[in-house]
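Field log, afternoon session.

UNIT: design team B
ACTIVITY: writing a sequence onto a fixed backbone
BACKBONE:
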């Protein structure tokens, strides 16, 4: 800017023999002789040396910004010299216009770099203070509307951020630093701090300015009435064209306002500065809209992920469970990995872990459908290979490209056995009580969704004290290692951790944390789901099991067998209640069963009784009328038992109830 003013001064005064017609320095106008240097200083900034201004401009350009300044009055002071005055003024105006364009380009790039709301507002403040204004106040609607939402209630603006030039400039670097959010704006805004909240009155002056969208000077009639409503009655801004009120309009509606302020010792705003303020306001508003939509998507993704995964794991008798889930990245929190633990009849539990290809909203939705299908199939007590077969059919119904891997296992704490079926998933690892980690030999199978393939199940020992680790490939596979190398590293990590606790198995929760520690900072390319099951089992001495023929005398036989078992366990206090409830449940089973029924008592932290038959219809609790001779058996069970239920099996059903142990 200073160079342009200097060239203009030279052009108007003329050089010897030049086109300006001047004969020498003695014939230059007085302004060029005495005021040209002072004019250059004013063009560089208030009291700033022109060479220093050039260094500051170069430093700002190197930092990706453009120094934005103008001489007092907005037009460079040039000495009059005939017809050359208009040409010099036009050249200076073009230079100022080029500076404005470069400033707007750098400022909008800085605003666009922000992702969340605070980054975008901070980008606006740092791009404009001190280059364009000495202070700025940014108001946004509270709450901010999202997308096509139609806000209800009055429009409320909340002061989101303020910034200003500090009183003491940093003379070492030549730049003016920024203060933290919400600084004291008393040098620019008199009368105290600005209001935090402002309710926009419908049809009021502030509403009219916001509806007009275009920025206005503070001394305009509309702004003089709107600014007190926005800032509060106490604060006041500088008079003249030293304040600009710019509405922030997003894609569909006005979402806030920005106030730019210059101090009295700085040149006022020019009419072209309104165009600059409009550009800054537009880009900021669009960025805020983008941030709000992105925040809503992140919120939906988080809610979807939490809904798809279990809030808590059940704790059935004979097994302890722990789980972990890690998203692939903070910006892609939704994935297709899932885990589940589903209680089954007979104190058994189904352990499931799966991985839908990809980590998008679609993958999460497919994962939710497959998880729901798996829970439904588990409730039917189907064999693991049948569950995978039905999951494969469900994936094909969802689409031809819906692929997933899954491992389904059923643990029986009474038999101390586990049945496992696999559909293209990494094999589980069994950590024995002595510290030996073993990769189980499970048929790999084809992924779910391929179609036309059979799944095979294997039955393995599940000794008490052992720990089964189910996981997804994100734990063992990355760009730095293949899946089998990762499985071997996981096995070694489990072995090393077990050595620290000696003969006792390591605690389950710290063990899961130790397993996740094998992931390095850049070693996670996919979601990670981990499910750990510590087998405790139920001792044979705590189980009583009988087969009974469906005869009229079976109810009495069941009462006698239950009485003997309770006497053996020193639970005589429960004899009367158990005999009554067993008699009612067994009588109902004998009435409809055609094959032998089963009666099993389990002594754990509660006393559990299970009666199984070959009739698939589940009993239904109903209120018997006074004239009915029957129909009160389940009513008694419901009133006396701690819990009760009925589960449909592939071969019939099981009706069970639980009683609390005597204290």
């Amino acid at each position: 800017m200073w160079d342009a003013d200097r060239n203009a001064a030279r052009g108007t005064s003329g050089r010897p023999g030049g086109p300006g017609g001047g004969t020498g320095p003695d014939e230059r106008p007085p302004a060029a002789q005495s005021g040209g240097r002072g004019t250059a200083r004013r063009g560089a900034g208030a009291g700033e040396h022109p060479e220093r201004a050039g260094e500051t401009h170069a430093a700002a350009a190197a930092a990706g910004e453009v120094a934005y300044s103008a001489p007092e009055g907005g037009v460079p002071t040039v000495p009059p010299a005939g017809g050359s005055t208009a040409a010099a003024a036009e050249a200076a105006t073009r230079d100022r216009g080029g500076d404005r364009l470069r400033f707007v380009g750098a400022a909008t790039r800085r605003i666009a770099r922000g992702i969340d709301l605070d980054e975008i507002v901070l980008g606006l403040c740092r791009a404009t203070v001190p280059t364009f204004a000495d202070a700025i106040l940014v108001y946004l609607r509270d709450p901010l509307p999202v997308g096509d939402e139609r806000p209800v209630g009055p429009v409320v603006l909340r002061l989101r951020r303020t910034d200003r030039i500090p009183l003491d400039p940093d003379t070492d670097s030549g730049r003016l630093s920024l203060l933290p959010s919400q600084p004291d704006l008393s040098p620019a805004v008199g009368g105290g701090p600005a209001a935090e909240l402002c309710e926009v009155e419908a049809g009021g002056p502030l509403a009219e300015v916001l509806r007009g969208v275009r920025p206005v000077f503070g001394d305009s009639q509309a702004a003089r009435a709107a600014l007190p409503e926005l800032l509060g009655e106490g604060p006041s801004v500088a008079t003249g064209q030293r304040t600009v009120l710019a509405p922030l309009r997003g894609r569909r509606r006005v979402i806030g306002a920005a106030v730019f302020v210059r101090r009295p010792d700085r040149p006022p705003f020019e009419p072209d500065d309104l165009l600059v303020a409009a550009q800054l306001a537009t880009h900021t508003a669009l960025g805020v809209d983008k941030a709000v939509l992105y925040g809503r998507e992140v919120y939906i993704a988080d809610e979807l992920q939490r809904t798809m995964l279990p809030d808590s794991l059940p704790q059935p008798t004979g097994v302890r469970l722990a789980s972990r889930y890690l998203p692939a990245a903070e910006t892609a929190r939704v994935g297709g990995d899932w885990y589940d633990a589903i209680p089954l009849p007979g104190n058994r539990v189904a352990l499931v872990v799966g991985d839908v290809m990809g980590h998008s909203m679609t993958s999460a939705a497919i994962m939710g459908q497959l998880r729901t299908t798996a829970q439904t199939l588990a409730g039917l007590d189907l064999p693991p290979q049948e569950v995978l077969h039905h999951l494969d059919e469900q994936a094909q119904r969802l689409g031809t490209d819906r692929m997933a891997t899954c491992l389904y296992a059923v643990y029986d704490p009474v038999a101390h056995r586990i049945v496992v079926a696999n559909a293209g998933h990494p094999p589980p690892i069994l950590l024995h009580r002595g510290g030996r980690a073993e990769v189980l030999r499970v048929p790999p199978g084809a992924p779910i969704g391929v179609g036309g393939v059979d799944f095979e199940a294997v039955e393995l020992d599940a000794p008490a004290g052992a720990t089964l680790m189910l996981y997804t490939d994100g734990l063992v596979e990355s760009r730095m290692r293949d899946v089998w190398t990762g499985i071997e590293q996981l096995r070694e990590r489990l072995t090393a951790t077990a050595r620290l606790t000696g003969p006792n198995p390591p605690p389950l929760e710290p063990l899961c944390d130790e397993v996740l520690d094998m992931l390095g900072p850049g070693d996670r390319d996919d979601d990670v789901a981990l499910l750990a099951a510590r087998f405790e089992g139920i001792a044979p001495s705590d189980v009583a099991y009988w087969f009974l023929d469906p005869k009229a005398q079976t109810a009495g036989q069941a009462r006698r067998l239950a009485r003997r078992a309770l006497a053996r366990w020193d639970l005589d206090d429960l004899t009367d209640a158990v005999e009554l409830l067993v008699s009612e449940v067994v009588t109902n089973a004998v009435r409809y069963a055609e094959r032998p029924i089963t009666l099993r008592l389990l002594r754990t932290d509660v006393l559990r009784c299970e009666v199984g038959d070959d009739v698939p219809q589940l009993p239904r609790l109903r209120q018997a009328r006074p004239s009915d001779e029957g129909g009160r058996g389940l009513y008694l069970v419901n009133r006396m038992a701690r819990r009760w239920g009925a589960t449909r099996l592939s071969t019939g059903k099981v009706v069970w109830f639980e009683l609390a142990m005597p204290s």
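LOG NOTE: The radius of gyration is 39 Å.
NEXT ACTIVITY: expression trials, pending approval
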